[in-house]
Amino acid sequence: MPAATQSLRIERADEVAATTPTLQLALAVQLGERATAALDAGLMLAFEVEWRLADGRRLRQHLVLRYSPLLRSYELAIGDAQPQPHALRNHLLAAMENARLRWPQARVCVNACGGEVRVRLDPAALPAPLRLPALVDGDWRFDSGWVVVGHEGTQAGVPPGSESPVRLLAPAPGSCTPASRALVPSCSHALRAVAHVAARRGAP
Q1: Burial of residue 120, with CB atoms counted within 10 A of its CB: 0-12 exposed, 13-18 middle, 19 or more buried
Q2: 119 and 8 in contact (C-beta within 8 Å)?
Q3: What's the Rg (C-alpha) of the chain?
Q4: What is the mean pLDDT of residues 71-100?
Q5: What are phi and psi of 5, to 5 degrees?
Q6: Which pTM does this prediction carry?
Q7: If you ran DSSP here, which 8-state letter would residue 123 be given?
Q8: Which is higher by pLDDT, 161 or 43?
Q9: pLDDT by residue (tens digit) across 14-36?
């Protein structure tokens, strides 16, 4: 049986009437083999939710997935809220897919908040040996793209060059531990991937 592929898609994102900016997400998430192995090994997976409001403000919050092998329990933390335990991984992902995010410190929108939203894996929250693969390896590519708030998965237009360039970082010396080797092919493979991407970027 072929391994499950990873994917992250926003099916819908709706503004919720409240005293502070509040967003209700409807996601479709498949972690795939490597991210699932990382989670079940006890590594944290943090997904950044960025909301670009119609008035120009940017609000950010994280959806953080964790697993405790000792307690045999999964947890979902939404922003600074108390993590919620889940006995099964499927329950954890279902809670993530239907997350409601609140920004209590942000000022209320004059009219509708509107705008567009994006959800993506935050590589900076991964252990050092996994940050490079998260940038160049398709098995770690979780990015919904920008979606218009209040519409069924409508992709928002992103002006060329408006996103930050991807930085390619080689693994730090001594960072290829036995535990990390079980989750990524090898550090030499990662370095070859960097060289390949750099060569393609340098080609005319």
Answers
A1: middle
A2: yes
A3: 18
A4: 96
A5: -85, 155
A6: 0.74
A7: G
A8: 43
A9: 999 888 999 999 999 999 999 99
Structure tokens at 6: 């990873």
How wide is the angle at C-alpha 200 spanned by C-alphas 45 and 191, nearest 5°?
Answer: 50
At residue 13, the 3 state secondary structure works out as: strand
Buried b (16+ CB within 10 A) or exposed e, 179-198: ebeebbeebeebeebbeeee
Buried b (16+ CB within 10 A) or exposed e, 18-54: eeebbbebebebebbebbbebbeeebbbbbbbebbbe
Contacts of 42 (CB under 8 A, 6+ apart): 66, 67, 68, 69
Element at 180 (helix H, strand E): helix 178-181
162 to 5, 9, 69, 108, 185: CA distances (angstroms): 29, 21, 41, 26, 32
Rounded Cα gap, residues 48 and 131, in angstroms: 15
Residue bearing tokens 């693994």: 171
Residue 16 carries which DSSP code?
-
